[in-house]
Amino acid sequence: MNRILVKTVLENLNPGSTATVGGWVRTCRVSKGGFAFITINDGSCLAALQIVADATLANYEGEIVKLSAGCSVLVTGEVVESQGKGQRVELKAGELRVLGWADPADYPIQPKHHTMEFLRTQAHLRARTNTFGAVARVRNAVSAAIHEFFQSRGFIYLHTPIITASDCEGAGQLFRVSTLPAGQEPKDQAGAIDWSQDFFARKAYLTVSGQLEAETYACALGNVYTFGPTFRAENSNTPRHLAEFWMVEPEMAFCDLQGDARVAEEFLKYVFSAVLTRCPDDMQFFNERVDKTVLATMEHVLGNDFVRLSYTEAVDRLVKSGKTWNYPIQWGLDLQTEHERYITEEVFGKPVIISDYPASIKAFYMRMNDDQKTVAAMDVLVPRIGEIIGGSQREDRLDVLNERMRAMNLEPDSYWWYCDLRRYGSVPHAGFGLGLERVVQFITGMANIRDVIPYPRTPRSAEF
Ligand code: 4AD
Ligand code: MG
């Protein structure tokens, strides 16, 4: 089946050329004069291609007039100038083969408005809608731009393990990986589960972050990045949390927090402008149909410097704002989404990089500042979403790291290999993690994170 993409026909082919296209019917209108007007979409672009089929086709009465949304077809015909508005060309069918029928009585994706909640129950078919096709193309463009940005700067793409024995964030939000029979796990003499008899002869988990392993490679190869799925068993039912999400994590040797923040800003801007260049129609669609501010927001973000603000200053502004908050705010408490959004939306109206958080609310690996109270951490906040990136300079002094781990009830021995980096040729290094879904949400204006990943995994939900 030597077909070409609908995108190619619409953008590149001139009237007079012949083309074969395949796709799924969006609409079929049969006119009295013996013509059927069929629009098909093949996912290569937002637009559907109009096919005109007339009664001289052998299967016109038997098949073509019975086409409806969701049927798959393969059409060969002549590209002709379009009479209708909105498209340059259409296809005059010389042959139209129906490959698969979709009964209109039960095909779930009808040409009408469906709610996001309904479409989540049809996640295997929702990619055939305009919205989910556009999300998939933007997500693809973001992923490609992520690789381009780092590859063009000489970063090495590193595959860190999915199964791990360490809790990078120390937050205990781990999914266990085990092959022990549920309910019949072997016990040790004290009556506790004997993990030495499990598959890995120890407790193992799905990774929450590839950072610790990425640090080991950065301390050999200089600049590296990981990009893969990460897992968090946090019971957060919010429009911004998934139990399985994709994270890109660069890690840079000979780099401090300022360098880290600089790369984060350049990186985000690179990704935003790549999507604007490559997905103009999809972005236009989001701007018209999903959130009327996304294009203006992108332009504004690209044209302005990100604000740099310390945690201490941020808390100061929040306390003095005179607002009433759902969550309390004072020095030492973590910022909640409402606080992050106030800072980035109302105070500055652009992305803000907040740095130097209290050590007590951040992970063990972040470098202690000279004040002995704060760590060299940064979060990048953007309007509407709040935190999109979390990063830090890493603690590169062995004694300080050991002390920090003990203070947080972590056993340095079980991170012996991580500590070795500080024992042998330690260097200042820094990195960050960007949540892929949050960046796709920010770019597209999609309100719920469940709608920017093909098959969302959230508490109490792992359908498909
Ligand atoms: O701030 P986090 O927890 O940082 C880390 O995991 C570090 N190890 C990263 C690093 O320094 N290499 O997560 C990083 C980002 C967040 O800013 C957010 O965008 C995203 O990952 N993220 C989530 N996205 C969706 N669902 C969740 N449950 C997420 N948790 C974090
Ligand atoms: Mg974070």
Describe this structure in words.
The protein is an alpha+beta fold and 464 residues long. It has 12 helices and 16 strands. The chain has helices at residues 6-12, 116-120, 130-152, 211-221, 257-278, 280-289, 294-302, 311-320, 337-348, 398-407, 416-423, 436-444, and strands at residues 18-31, 35-41, 49-54, 72-81, 89-100, 156-157, 163-164, 176-177, 204-206, 223-231, 244-253, 307-310, 352-358, 374-382, 386-393, 429-435. An 8-stranded mixed β-sheet has the order 6-10-11-16-15-14-13-12, with helices on both faces. The chain has a 5-stranded mixed barrel with strand order 1-2-3-5-4. Strands 7-9-8 form a 3-stranded antiparallel β-sheet, with no helix packed on it. Helix 3 (130-152) crosses helix 6 (280-289). The longest helix is centred in the N-terminal third of the chain and has 23 residues, at 130-152. It is elongated and about 85 Å long. The two termini are 30 Å apart. The relative contact order is 0.11. The mean pLDDT is 96. Magnesium ion is lined by residues 379, 387, 390.
